[in-house]
Structures are given as C-alpha cells and as structure tokens.
Amino acid sequence: MGEPRVLRIATGAGYSGDRIEPAADLAQRGRLDYLVFECLAERTISDAQLRRRADPCGGYDPFLEARITAVLDACRRNGTRIISNMGAANAPAAAQRVRQIAAAMGHTDLCVAIVIGDDVLDICRQQDVALDNGLTVGALGERVISANAYIGAGPIAAALAQGADIVLTGRVSDPALFLAPLVHEFGWDMTDWDLLGKGVLIGHLLECAGQLCGGYFADPGYKDVPGMARLGFPLAEVTADGLAEFSKLADTGGRIDSATVKEQVLYEIHDPARYLQPDVVADFSKVTVLETGPDRVRVTGASGTARTGMLKVSVAYHDGFIGEGQISYAGPGAVERGRLALEILRERLVALDALQDARFDLIGLDALHGAGLSRGALPYEVRVRVTARAPSADIAARVGHEVEALYTNGPAGGGGAVKTVRPGVALASALLHESQASARVVMLEGVSA
Amino acid sequence: MMLREIAHARSGDKGNTANISVIAYRPEDYPLLVADVTAERVAEHFRGIALGPVLRYEIPSLGALNFVLSDALAGGVVSSLALDAHGKSLGSAILSMEIAGPRVTEGGDR
C-alpha cells in the first residue's frame, strides 16, 4: 500500500482586487492540482450586472485577463486546473476571453467550462419573491438590478468530470468552489453530510486567501506577522476522508498557525453548529486546530447535517444617490472647529429636506463607533465627513458642495476637501427552493486561434 | 485588565448583521472569557451600535466565543453610510472591554 492520495488545492484570490503575485508563485511552485480564485463579494455581482447592461461583452471580473495571463503557462505545465467565480454576471463572455488569451499564449487544447443558472431574476419576478427587508421583487419593479442564487458544488464537479481545465462560474457559494474538486476527485456522495461538512470547512478556510496566512491579523506587540509585504496565500493538502493540512509556500511572508486559523474558522459565521450552505448544513462547533510544523496546521472535527433545500438569493436594486464630502482640521481647537463645521453643515443641509438620511462624523474622534467607545480622547487633527442619501444625483451633489464651501464659509483652517457622488445600490436576501434554480454546465472545447 | 491582554478577535459581516469572534490566546483563559464576556456585557459595550439582540455561541474546542450582533451595520455594507460599512473595526473595539484578572481562590486553584 502506498501513501494515501493527497489533493493539493490552493487559493489564488480572496476577492476581486486581491494581489496577483502570490497566485503566480503558487502556480509555479505549489505542485497544485487545483488553483481556485474567489472573486465575488456581495456587491460585486450587481456592479457586474450594471457593466453587462452597458456592454453585452462585459460583466465578468475586471482582473480576469491579468490573473489568467499570470498563471496559465504554469498551470498548463503543471497540470493544475483552475476554478473561479470570475464569470460574475457574464460567464460566457469570460470564457470567450479566456479562450482568446489561451490561444494567444499558444494553449490551443484548453477545455473551458462555464456554470450558468445562478441568474434567477426572471423566476423571482414571476413569483414576486419576498425579501428579508419586507419588500418584494415585484414592488421594487424596474429598480431591481439583479437576483443571483448561491449555487452549490454539484455543477462545478460535473464540469470537472467532463474534463474542464478551467471552470468559470457566476454566483456560487464561496466554499463550493473548493468543495467541488474534492467531490469530483474523491467521489464523495452528495448526501454524505459528514464529508461535505468537512469539505465546506476546507473551503471556508481557504476562500479568503491571505487571511489564513496572517493577512488581516497583525497587531504589533500582540500578534506579530513576519514578512507581510510578501504575504503568501494558503495551500491545503486533503485526503479522501476529508482530513486537511494547511500551509503556505516556503520563502513567503506571513504565518499560518492555530491563532490565524481559529480567526478564519469563525469569520463571518453565525451559529457555528449550523453554517447554512447550498450543499450541506456544516457544523464547525467541534473543530480543533493542531500545529504539525512551522507554518503547518491540521484542522479536524468538522461535520454536517442534511442541507435545507433552500438557496440564498441575493437581490440588488437601485436606491437613490449618495453624496459625500470631507475636510480636515488640525492644531489647537481642531475638534471644536470640526464640530462647528458639522453644525454649519447640518443647518445648511437640513434646508434640503429631500435628503433621506445623513451621517455627520469626525474621523479621528468618533466616526467608527460614536462617542461611547472613543472616551473623548483628543486628537491633533480630525476630518469632517458628511454623507447622505438623496433621490437624485443633483441633490446628492449638494452634500459635497456644502463641505467644499466651508473653505470660504466655515471655521478657520479647514483643508483637503474632497467630494463624491455615487449611485446607491441596496441588497436584500430571499430564499428559493433548489429545484427552481437549474444550474447547468456548458463545455467549450479547444481554442480556435 | 483589558480583554486585549488575553484574547484576539476578528469581525465579519453578513447583511446588516455583524459577528465578532473572541479567541483566548491560551486555552486556560477560556473559562474567564465564558464567565466575563457575556452577551449582555457585549451588548452594553456596543450600545448605540448593535441596535438588535446580541447572541453568544461557545466553541470550547477553539477556546473561542462568537458573538452575533443583529442590526449593527447601519443597513449593511452595500447601503450603509458608515465609514466602516463592513463593521471590520468592531473586532478591535471589543478588545477594549475590561474583564476581571485571573482569579486566585483560596487553596491556589484558579
């Protein structure tokens, strides 16, 4: 008997704007079976839908070209398959772009698969689906931008079974991007809740990339992280029983140990015993973390129970415009002058009764947590920040105009004014039965030069 | 003693709900977290920020607590007007909580 088969899966991105160098390094030196790029945040897909409306060939991840170009040669050389939700709102267009890039790089035998079916806007409109904020899709009418369901691992695993070298998806659950290759390679049954729960934990730990390796962890003097400028991304070695060891490449910065892993186990989790996923209800409540070497950690104890059958749907809709202005005050009396500026702005903006809601903050004093936690510590400088929602772009623009006008109409010594206006987008959630979102796989074989 | 001396924390967001994990650096300090960092005290610490109920989950195998603060993100990351719309800074804020130091009872057992 040889050693048990070990699958090597790494993360190439934890969000769309993530750094690309660690992914290129993993593609070259990681001896990877799979490289997974997780690039869709809650807001990202509605932005992508708006881009697709403006351009039928757009709407996929803006860094798709840069990422694929950076890793494709190494992945082809090393037999590494790529999985990503960089398809965003337009996986077919993303796949065509990848095929063009591959052809230009001389990889004419590439098999690209797309997973479609997460766009459930038509179904939500037909059924006038209820949202968690009390509204319905129908009541929002033309304000609705998009409705995307969080698809599970099944279709991605099916694409891998059909021979895909690269799988591009739109909205899928983030852990499913990592669970799918485990299901495919190890033949896990999609009703083996224990294994699926273990796979979800592996995906959950990997999905934020650098965060497992000490990114978003450092607190000098308490939690020191070496070499952060060269922070590496994580790599999991997984066996068929769902046991996983996590590490990063030698000569990369960061740290991966029980402390960094524990923070990630609980990141964005509510009830640890019931982490709702499209494939399984995962149970992380008995997870243990064991350090097995320098920058090497074994994680055990995850399990799961039967999935609910309901898919979370994320619905985005237009919600007015947001205007913002900022200006700074420094030196003796900075806080008092900043407060005076806020009083003036409040009075001037109240006259615009079309403002729907507004915030008046002093950055450096109480902008993040209000007056309660800042305990009145006096800073040398503060930054006035006013932001408000308005029904039109013109009214929203008045917020920044009034802040800028403090230069000649406000307290002494204000500097560095900036102003912005942006369209407001709101998000709400709904639930749809899994039978109503029929995800499917489209294979695009070969690449025409 | 400040909570920061014995624990680290990280916050995350889902919609308008924030979660904050609080993790003991040393397993032996976990009972102190369980005793002192109650849901009620966390709700009080974040008064005016967490506008809904605060739930606490215990995860002894990690030496960690997980707090779920509903209605704590001014509407959620997409629509919030807050400077820190994700509530990412809440994890640092919880570490300023004052807790009792390690307890020494007669007989020397903690």
Automatic annotation (TrEMBL), chain A:
Residues 7-442 form the Acyclic terpene utilisation N-terminal domain. PANTHER family: DUF1446-DOMAIN-CONTAINING PROTEIN, PROPIONYL-COA CARBOXYLASE. It holds the Pfam family AtuA. This is Acyclic terpene utilisation N-terminal domain-containing protein.
UniProtKB/TrEMBL annotation, chain B:
The lineage of its organism: Bacteria, Pseudomonadati, Pseudomonadota, Alphaproteobacteria, Rhodobacterales. Residues 1-99 form the AtuA-like ferredoxin-fold domain. It comes from Frigidibacter mobilis. Pfam families: AtuA_ferredoxin. This is AtuA-like ferredoxin-fold domain-containing protein.
